Amino acid sequence: MSTLLEQVQQRGNPLIDGDQVTFVWQGAAPAPQLIGDFTNWSENPITLTESEPNLWTHTLTLPRDAYVEYAFVHRPDIEERLPDPFNHQTVWNGVNSVNHQLYMPEFVRSPLLTRGADVKRGKMTEHYIAGGRWLASTHRRVHFYQPPVDEAVPLVIVWDGTDYIARAKLNVVVDNLIAQGRIRPIALACIDNGGQARLSEYFCNDATLVYVIEHVLPAAFQHLNLILPQDGAYGVMGASMGGLMALYAALRFPNLFGHVISQAGAFVDDPRVEYMVINLMVDNLPVKPLKIWQDIGVLDWLLPGNRTMHERLVRKGYDVTYYESGGGHNYTIWSHIVGRALETVFGV
Question: Are residues 282 and 249 in the same domain?
Answer without folding.
Answer: yes
